Amino acid sequence: MSGLVALRQKVQVVFALGLMNLVRVLAYRFGVKFGLNPVRRLRAEIPGAPFFGEVTGKTQSLLPVTSHWLHEVRYFGVFPYPVLEGPPEWHLNPMTGVRVKAPERPWWTIPDFDAAVGDIKLIWEASRFDWVLAFAQRACSGDVVELQRLNDWLADWCINNPPYCGPNWKCGQEASIRVMHLGLAALILGQTDQPLTGLVDLIKLHLQRIAPTISYSMAQDNNHGTSEAAALFIGGSWLESQGVNEGKRWQKTGRKWLENRVVRLIDQDGSFSQYSLNYHRMMLDTLSMVEMWRRHQGLEQFSKLFLSHSAAAARWLFAMVDPISGDAPNLGANDGARLLPLTETDYRDYRPSVQLGMALFTDEQAYANSGSWNNQLAWLGVPLPQNVAHPSGNQVFNGGGYAVLRRDKAMAVLHYPRFRFRPSQADALHLDLWCDGENLLRDAGSYSYNTVPEWLAYFPGTASHNTVQFDGRDQMPRLSRFLFGDWLKTESVTQLIEDGEETIFGAAYRDGFGARHQRSVRLMGNRIIVRDEVSGFASKAVLRWRVKPGNWHLEGQSMTDGTHILLVTSTVSFARIEHVSGWESRYYLQKTALQVLEVEIHEPGILTTEYQW
Q1: Mean of the per-residue pLDDT values for the chain?
Q2: Which of 188, 234, 392, 459 could pair with 447 as two cysteines, CB 3.0-4.6 Å apart?
């Protein structure tokens, strides 16, 4: 029977993902493996330096510059590594000291997951070219050494990553990120109209890699598609302006897929297909770069649908971000991506991206007071709008399954299942709680995509979220590293109610085994009350609350750090109430311990939690 159940779940997922997407994936893999895809036949010469010319007085700037990649680089925003005088080792995992073997091999012969090398993202990180932006900033500020360094590093990268060989050519999205960063660097340095031959050749080299596999990226229904379409649009229009024949075709392809992806993957309410705060930022930054480039080059406007969905995406992120800290709930997958590191702000500060996206797509300032979040606009030549957006209040984003409740300085975010696209975490009815810039009840993040099975199971699993787990299993069965089966559906949603004293919202689901969880949330000025009604499970239900760092201890049915109190009551007897250790990953590949309150019951009932601060 278990085999039949597993088969049924896989068939359901195939239809949920889309048969056309499955065909695209299979065609891509078959074509690359057997040499049928034209990407296998690509040949090109190594582009020659220089790539960027002398900075004229007209483009020199007095704007604040970032210290990123000057003396130190922080991988994924957290791990510090010294920057030596010369370029990095492009095929080195800096955490382990292990190098990719035979990097001169064609990219399609290199495995996606190599236990000896470790997480390939550590190889890719330096080759995303975010240092190009930092060097361009400092060169624009009159530092001639940084301009020479920019050209030297690019020349070294081209020599050590010959066309279409090695791990840094494996992924079309990685190539696309490089194109976007090179384009923005040229914009910063005022060299988009008359780029040097080496830079034109380098852009063309990348678009030749991206274009033949664009169908595969679209089959993912995620930010791979938006990134690759953006690179074709930006790079193609740039090459077209320089008389490169293929440029017009690439630009048209990029525009077509950008229009398609934005309308398909971004709901009318702004929710994105990946159910992730950080991937949402990556998508919004991509669209912002596209729109900046379009305006700068005087290209035809995108459609009204494109602009309305992009504006909704900007407002969605604005609603999720805590305005005091700039941080946001650690919901969904978080791979450490940050496309626009033009400020000295922390990786987890989303305000620069929100401010830029709102300025471009809604013609509003998200944050009226001056701050480093405005530096990005200044560097990219985006005027600060006169209009100021109203502070984000209570909102329900039903397209993605999010309710944002606000009361005074407190914010609660409830995520309920609305899975039109592939979910990456079993986090139904997870609750995040914030007050005065501090994350009181928090999510675990995702840690790493290439780690030991224990962590691959824990971080995306139900046990790492503020929700109820039934019978020791995830809310959805895991079918592979990145795929859950039997996607949950919301059974009911209660209307958001706001009165003078409290804000109320709730939702419920029933899983494939018949277990049911109904959660209602009441947010007040200095407390939140959560009511969880559970039934239909076989043996046990475990409620977890993952609290902020502090000296917490258990006192009967409550846990306290001396200032905050977390109290749980139940209509049935507790089988266990325990203060245990858990884990969270606020930055990719970083995990830290945190404290968790676990409450276990063995029969259907109602659990009521009150958190006071």
Answers
A1: 96
A2: 459
116 occurs within a structural domain = no
Bridging pattern class, strands 527-535 and 605-612: antiparallel
Taking only the tens place, the pLDDT of each residue in 510-542 is 999 999 999 999 999 899 999 999 999 999 999
Contact between residue 331 and residue 397 where contact means Cβ atoms under 8 Å apart: no
Structural tokens at position 438: 């501090």
* Residue 514 Cα distances to 66, 203, 445, 480, 534, angstroms: 53, 54, 27, 23, 11
Q: Measure Cα distances from 15 to 392, 415, 479 in Å.
A: 37, 24, 15
Total Cβ atoms within 10 A of residue 557: 14
How many Cβ atoms sit within 10 Å of the Cβ of residue 196?
18
β 605-612/576-584 pair status: unpaired
Question: Angle 604-609-613 (CA atoms, 0-180°, nearest 5)?
Answer: 175
* CATH, residue 588: 2.70.98.70
Whole-Å CA distances, 429 to 173, 467, 542: 32, 6, 14
Residue 436 lies in a domain: yes
The helix (H) or strand (E) run that includes residue 528 is strand 527-535
CB 181 within 8 A of CB 130: yes
Asked if the structure places residue 225 within a domain, the reply is no
Per-residue model confidence (pLDDT) at position 2: 67
- pLDDT category at 352 given cuts 50, 70, 90 is very high
* Residue 560: C-alpha distances to residues 51, 90, 101, 412 (Å): 59, 48, 52, 20
Bridge partners, residue 506, by sequence = 494, 520
Cα distances (angstroms) measured from residue 57 to each of 62, 140, 190: 11, 9, 11
In sequence order, the 6+-apart residues with CB closer than 8 A to the CB of 2 are none
Domain interval for residue 28: 1-37
In a domain, 144, yes or no: no
- pLDDT, position 607: 98
Question: How many structural domains are present in the chain?
Answer: 2
Chain-centroid distance, C-alpha 301: 26
Query: What ranges in 18-143 are assigned the alpha helix state H?
Result: 19-33, 121-124, 130-140
